[in-house]
Write a structure and sequence with these properties.
mainly beta, Cytochrome Bc1 Complex, Chain D, domain 2, five-stranded antiparallel beta sheet, four-stranded antiparallel beta sheet, disordered N terminus
Length: 619
C-alpha cells in the first residue's frame, strides 16, 4: 500500500530555493488552469472551491489523478506552487484527530450474515436499490420523525462520493482523499482507514470469498482492490485497464465468487494541446474474487482506435473510435447467465454501434450477447466546447447511460431490464429477447447534465426515478452564484430540473409525478435531482443539488420528510464538517438508520465533506 502522504511530503521537501526553477503558482494557474476553472468548462470546480482542499490533494490530482493530462505540462515545482496558490495553505502532515477513533477498534463479521445490511451499490446484484422492511428497520409512519444522529467529516475534500456499505454493524466507504474508512454504524467512531493509490468513488462490496470475508472496490486509477474488512489490510490489487486516464466509478458487482467490473475514463476531458485524443475504450472485466485474477475482459467498442482527423498541419490529431465508458455498476442475471451495463458516448468518431447503449455480456466468457443502441450522432470531445478550439470536431448531446441497469422479474414471470439515460428517457427492454424494446418513457428534456444521472430504484411494484435536467442560465449583475461559463456570466438555473417520477413497470406509464423543489429564485440553488434514490416499503428517498434529502410516499409522491443538509456540523470525529449539494450516491437505510453523503463540489454545486446518519428522534 502506497503511503501517498509521505511521498508528497518528501516531494515538498525537495523544493529548496533554486532546487527547481518554477513560475509562481498564480502564473501557472493563469496560463494552465484559469481557462477551465474560471468558468469555461462547466464540469471543472470553480477556483474558489479549492480553498476547501488540502494542497496534497491538488498535487496528487495533477500527478496521477483527474488532472494528470494537464499536469504533464508542468514540472514538479510548478505543480507544488499552484497547489499552494489554489488552496491558500502550506503542505502539512494532516491526519485524523485522536477523538475520531473507537475505544474498541475491532471489526467483527462473525454474525454479519444474521444482521441487517446494505451491500454494494444497488443492495442486490440486480441493482434495485430496494431495502426490505426487516433490514430497513424503519417504518414509513416513522420517517417524519427522523432527526440527525451524528455527522462524520472527511478531512480536506470538497465532495463526498463514496456510498456507504453497512455490514456487520460497520459502515465502509471510500473518499476523494484516497482513504477508505470503516466506522461504527451506530456511533460513527473510526475503526480503521486504508489508503488506496487514488480516490475511491465506488461503493464497496463486503462478502465472503475463498472462505474468508473480503471487501472489494475500485479506484480512480483503474485498479480493483480486495482487502480484509476486519483490519483494512490489502489482500490483492489488480489493474484492470492500462490506459493512463482510466478509472473506475462503477462499483464492482459480486456474484458466485466473481467480481464484474465496469471501466470508464476521463480521457474526453484531456484538453492539453499536446494530447492526441482519444484511444480509450470502455470495458467489462470479470475477476476471481478470492485472488483478483482476471477471468475475462471485453471492450464495449470492438474495433481498435486509429488516427481519423487531420488538423491541417500534416499530422493526425484525433484518434477513434473511443469512449463507451461503463459508469454504473453491472447488473448480474444468474438465470440468463448474463451481465448487463449501459455505456457512455463516443469521444471522437467514427461512431460505433455500442455507445449510448444497453449491452449484455455472457457471464462465463464475456462475449457480447446483444446490444441495443439508443442514440447515434453523440460524439463529444471536450476541446469542441472550449473557446480556444485547437481543432474542430463534431460533438453531440452527451447522452450517456450514467447509472446501473435494473433487472426485475414481475409477478407474472416476465422479466424486464430498465435503464435511465441522460437524454431524459427511461428505457425498458426484454433481456430474454436480445434487448427488444418493451417501452420508452420520457421524463425530462435531457442534456449535458440532464435526464437520469446516477440511478433509479424499484420496489418491484413501481420504478422510481429522480430527474436532473440541471442547467445554468445567463446571469444578471448582483445575482448569487454568479460566475463565467464559456465567457458568459452565468448562475445555476433555479427553475430547471428536479422532481420525482413513479412509472408502471409493465407499461412505463407515469403513475405519479412529484414536482421539483422551489428555489424561490435563488440563483445559487438548483432543484435538479441527480443522485440515485433508494426505496423502502412505502417511502422513496431522494437527495437534491439544493442540499435537501426528501422522503416521498410511494403511493402518491407526497413529501413526508425534508431535511436541509447544507449547513455546518459538529462532527463525531472532530473534523470541521460542512454539508452541501447531494449528488452521485444515494442514501442507505439499515437497521433504523438513514445514511447520506452531503457535499459535491462540482459544476457549481455546493461543496461539503460529511456523511450524515439519521434515526427516529435521533436516538
Amino acid at each position: 500500500m502506497k503511503n501517498t502522504l509521505i511521498g508528497l511530503l518528501l516531494l515538498a521537501a525537495a523544493y529548496a530555493p533554486g532546487a527547481n526553477a518554477a513560475r509562481d503558482g498564480e502564473a501557472v494557474y493563469k496560463e494552465q488552469c484559469a481557462a477551465c476553472h474560471d468558468g469555461a468548462n462547466q464540469r471543472a470546480p470553480r477556483r474558489e472551491a479549492f480553498k476547501a482542499f488540502e494542497p496534497e490533494l491538488v498535487l496528487k490530482a495533477l500527478i496521477d489523478g483527474p488532472m494528470a493530462a494537464q499536469g504533464r505540462a508542468l514540472n514538479d515545482a510548478e505543480m507544488h506552487q499552484v497547489a499552494i496558490f489554489l488552496t491558500g495553505k502550506q503542505f502539512t502532515s494532516g491526519g485524523m484527530p485522536s477523538q475520531a477513533y473507537c475505544a474498541d477498534r475491532t471489526v467483527s463479521l462473525a454474525k454479519a450474515n444474521e444482521m441487517p445490511s446494505w451491500n454494494g451499490w444497488g443492495n442486490s446484484h440486480e441493482q434495485t436499490r430496494f431495502q426490505p422492511a426487516e433490514k430497513a428497520g424503519l417504518k414509513a409512519a416513522d420517517v417524519p420523525k427522523l432527526k440527525l444522529k451524528w455527522a462524520f467529516a472527511v478531512p480536506g475534500v470538497i465532495r463526498v462520493y463514496g456510498q456507504p456499505t453497512v455490514v456487520g454493524g460497520t459502515a465502509f466507504f471510500g473518499t476523494a482523499s484516497d482513504k477508505v474508512f470503516a466506522i461504527d454504524a451506530k456511533t460513527g467512531c473510526l475503526k480503521w482507514e486504508f489508503e488506496a493509490d487514488a480516490g475511491v468513488r465506488t461503493a464497496i462490496s463486503v462478502v465472503q470469498a475463498g472462505g474468508k470475508w473480503m471487501a472489494f472496490f475500485g479506484d480512480l486509477r483503474g485498479q480493483v482492490y480486495g482487502i480484509d474488512p476486519t483490519g483494512g489490510t490489502l489482500v490483492w490489487k489488480q489493474k484492470v485497464e492500462d490506459h493512463p486516464l482510466a478509472y473506475i466509478t462503477a462499483a464492482p458487482t459480486f456474484f458466485d465468487g466473481r467480481l464484474y467490473v465496469g471501466v470508464a475514463s476521463r480521457e474526453e476531458t484531456a484538453t492539453g494541446p499536446d494530447y492526441a485524443c482519444c484511444n480509450f475504450r470502455g470495458s467489462v472485466v470479470a475477476l476471481d474474487a478470492a485472488t483478483g485474477k482476471r477471468i475475462w475482459k471485453t471492450y464495449t467498442i470492438p474495433d481498435e482506435p486509429k488516427p481519423t482527423v487531420d488538423d491541417g498541419s500534416g499530422h493526425k490529431v484525433l484518434i477513434g473510435p473511443a469512449g463507451g465508458s461503463v459508469w454504473g455498476a453491472p447488473a448480474v442475471d444468474p438465470k440468463a447467465r448474463a451481465v448487463y451495463v449501459g455505456t457512455g458516448n463516443d469521444y471522437t468518431g467514427p461512431e460505433p454501434k455500442t455507445t449510448d447503449a444497453m449491452m449484455a455480456f455472457d457471464m462465463d466468457d464475456g462475449h457480447v450477447r446483444w446490444v441495443h443502441q439508443m442514440d447515434r450522432e453523440d460524439v463529444g470531445f471536450m476541446p469542441c466546447k472550449t473557446p480556444n478550439e485547437p481543432f474542430k470536431c463534431p460533438h453531440g448531446p452527451d447522452y450517456d447511460f450514467g447509472s446501473s441497469p435494473i433487472l426485475v422479474e414481475q409477478a407474472d414471470g416476465k422479466r424486464i431490464l430498465m435503464a435511465g439515460q441522460k437524454s431524459g428517457v427511461i428505457h425498458a427492454v426484454d433481456p430474454d429477447h436480445d434487448g427488444k424494446t418493451i417501452w420508452d418513457t420520457r421524463i425530462g428534456t435531457g442534456g449535458y447534465e440532464g435526464g437520469v444521472e446516477f440511478g433509479m430504484a424499484t420496489d418491484g411494484k413501481l420504478l422510481y426515478s429522480p430527474l436532473s435536467d440541471f442547467k445554468f442560465k445567463v446571469s444578471m449583475q448582483g445575482e448569487a452564484g454568479r460566475a463565467t461559463i464559456m465567457g458568459v456570466p452565468a448562475t445555476l438555473d433555479p427553475m430547471s430540473g428536479g422532481g420525482m417520477f413513479a412509472l408502471d413497470l409493465s407499461t412505463g406509464k407515469i403513475v405519479w409525478h412529484a414536482p421539483p423543489a422551489d428555489c424561490h429564485g435563488d440563483t445559487s440553488c438548483s432543484p435538479a435531482q441527480t443522485a440515485a434514490p433508494s426505496v423502502i416499503p412505502g417511502i422513496v428517498f431522494s437527495g437534491s443539488i439544493d442540499g435537501h434529502m426528501r422522503a416521498y410516499s410511494t403511493v402518491d409522491g407526497k413529501v413526508v420528510w425534508d431535511f436541509d443538509t447544507k449547513k455546518p456540523y459538529q462532527t463525531v470525529n472532530g473534523v470541521p464538517g460542512q454539508g452541501g449539494s447531494i449528488d452521485g450516491p444515494g442514501p442507505v437505510i439499515v437497521d433504523g438508520i438513514l445514511y447520506t453523503n452531503s457535499g459535491y463540489g462540482y459544476v457549481g454545486e455546493a461543496t461539503g465533506n460529511v456523511l450524515l446518519a439519521f434515526s427516529v428522534d435521533g436516538k
